[in-house]
Amino acid sequence: MEEKKVGEVIKFFGKISVAAIRLSEGSLKVGDTIHIVGHTTDLTETVESMQIENKNAVEAGPGADIGIKVGERVRENDIVYKVVE
Predict the structure, then answer these.
(1) Can you give the residue range of the structural domain that contains 79?
(2) If DSSP codes are grouped into helix, strand and coil, which group holds residue 46?
(3) Rounded Cα distance, 54 and 5, in Å
């Protein structure tokens, strides 16, 4: 499967297990599969829900800061890839 870089993690909120991601290129929408990779991170997950400024969103494009619930800890500066089938 091909992967395309879409952004990077800018913050992780541990209590609620949410990654704040800044999209730099491409777009993400609910239902997409993402792969988050970093120094000690390797997580593949489907985007179940997404928020922009605490409001639910279905899709986000370059320049947006989004929040996505993740299953495990991710770290600042981890790279976010969109898995393209």
Answers:
(1) 2-84
(2) strand
(3) 24
Encoding tokens for residue 9? Answer: 């993690």
Cβ contacts of 25 within 8 Å, gap of 6 or more: 4, 5, 6, 7, 62
> What six digits make up the tokens of 77?
């500066």
What sign has the CA pseudo-torsion 77, 78, 79, 80?
Answer: negative
Give the count of domains, the chain: 1
CATH number, position 31:
2.40.30.10
* Position 33, amino acid: T
Amino acid at position 44, single letter: T
pLDDT single digits (tens) 3-57: 999 999 999 999 999 999 999 998 999 999 999 999 999 999 999 999 999 999 9
In the DSSP assignment, the letter for residue 38 is -
